[in-house]
Design brief:
Elements (H helix, E strand, L loop, with lengths): L11 E2 H8 L4 H9 L3 E3 L2 E2 L6 E2 L6 E3 L2 E3 L7 E6 L28 E2 L8 E7 L2 H8 L7 E8 L4 H9 L2 E2 L2 E2 L4 E4 L7 E8 L6 H8 L4 E9 L2 E2 L8 E3 L2 H10 L6
Parallel strand pairs: 9-15
Antiparallel strand pairs: 1-4, 2-3, 2-5, 5-6, 7-9, 7-17, 8-9, 10-14, 10-15, 11-12, 13-14, 15-16
Helix pairs in contact: 1-2, 1-3
Length: about 250
């Protein structure tokens, strides 16, 4: 194990190893290291510059050994409402682990949907893709169908399109279009955005006094929710996985 310098051939920084193992996104992996939950060769490491060599160094997270997967796996999952978008929940609520395909290990959700929202989640052990799908710098759009109370004025929607300030930071511009519906008291909208802060859409529409009633994610980049029903999952085809990686600026896995 090395702790400084540029990784040699086959070696990688600890956060990259954790991400590729499917333990977390790169950003989440950094938090795991800083929290002292990661061991390398029986020694707790908190230095993000730590470098490991897969197959030679023994890396453990919370006492469980991690290994790089033999191949990358990609699954689309329809998260139902009132299910937590994590693998475990300290409050004992239903979480996505209850729905994961049997025999497949190392999958982590790419981002989250809040407890009351539903729709498409990508589950994968491809840490590089996870990082790029979540980071707004790579501009991978996610699409949502949102039902809001009442009928927003065009000026309010334009304000959201340009961006509003949430917790001291301005949101990135978003695309919004109306979805035709038979609703008379409320409005359905499609929102496309590359950003994904916690409860961002709910907070945005609250700012223009049209609270979100229903929220469903229908696409992540080129991946569509399609015919999936709540609680269902399917493995992505090779073409779908390649299209996702291409949208994120990555090559063939």
């Amino acid at each position: 194990m090395a702790a400084e310098g540029r990784p040699a051939g086959g070696a990688m920084r600890i956060n990259q190893f954790l991400a590729r193992s499917g333990a977390a996104s790169r950003r989440g992996a950094e938090a795991l290291v800083l929290d002292g939950r990661v061991e390398v060769n029986a020694r707790v490491v908190r230095d993000l510059a730590t470098v490991v060599t897969p197959g030679r160094d023994v890396v453990k997270l919370d006492g469980q050994r991690l290994k790089l997967p033999g191949h990358a796996s990609y699954f689309a999952f329809y998260k139902p409402k009132e299910v937590v978008s994590t693998l475990d929940d300290p409050e004992g609520r239903a979480c996505i682990r209850n729905f994961l395909p049997p025999g497949v290990r190392g999958l982590v959700p790419v981002g989250r949907l809040d407890y009351h929202s539903e729709g498409l989640l990508l589950l994968t052990n491809d840490g590089d893709l996870t990082f790029r799908m979540l980071h707004p710098r790579f501009k991978v759009e996610k699409a949502y169908h949102v039902k809001v109370k009442g009928e927003p004025e065009p000026e309010g929607l334009d304000r959201l399109r340009r961006g509003v300030t949430l917790e001291g930071r301005r949101t990135l511009p978003v695309k919004i279009r109306r979805i035709p519906s038979r609703e008379t008291r409320h409005t359905w909208l499609e929102v496309r955005m590359a950003e994904g802060r916690k409860n961002q859409l709910r907070e945005m529409f609250f700012r223009i006094e049209h609270p979100v009633i229903k929220l469903k994610r229908v696409a992540m980049g080129p991946l569509l929710i399609g015919a999936l029903k709540p609680g269902q999952w399917r493995e992505l085809t090779r073409d779908e996985a390649s299209a996702l990686r291409e949208a994120a600026g990555l090559g063939e896995k």
